[in-house]
Amino acid sequence: MLEYNVSKSDRLLGVLRMKMYAELERKQCAVCKQTKTVDLFYKDKRRRLGVARECKVCKKAEERRSRIENPERWSAKRHRSLLSEKFGITADDYNKMFQSQDGKCWICQKHQSVLKKRLFVDHDHSTGKIRCLLCQRCNFAIGLLDESKETFLRALSYLEKFKN
Question: What is the pTM of this model?
Answer without folding.
Answer: 0.57
